[in-house]
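Hi there, hope your week has been kind to you so far. Do you reckon you could talk me through the fold, stretch by stretch? I've dropped the whole record in just underneath, so have a look:
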Amino acid sequence: MPRVLVIIGSVRPKRIGPTVARWVAEIGRITMPATFAVLDLRDWPLPMDDEPGVPAKEGYVQPHTKAWSNEVAAADAFVFVTPQYNWGYPAALKNAIDHLYFEWRGKAAVIITYGGHGGGKCAAQLREVLGGLKMKIADTMPALTLPVGQVEGNSGEIDPETAFRGYKATIGEAITQLHALLEPIQD
């Protein structure tokens, strides 16, 4: 069965990313036969640019980069669940992506964003970066618009089933596209 990593794009102290990612993983498990594992970038504190070489040309020397490489390489596909920050995606997510190169190449991905405006600009930027890595990206990119009180209050808590109920079908469609993008796994 394919292994899908649902990557939480935010590492902020007050964040809804883990709750939203778990909800997306549940939808994924219902939609396609795969193992969905939620991965929190907070658990992967990767320093900025501490590898002496370029990921696309040289090997890794840092133990944390080697561990990150193994984690990403073991996945067949990815679902990026990320907030939109200032019309873009979070630096922690960019840093995690940029630590590697070949581990992403050719793998399938879905981009799911959330924010006060849904996250379409974030998704467009992330799509461009993932495309540069030659990833296969689902056409459907759900952009979940946060309720006004959530944006203003930012308690770090949300009930996605209530707040994003209207997006469930679109998320399911994106996961179905992810499934279609996966090449058959060889036994």
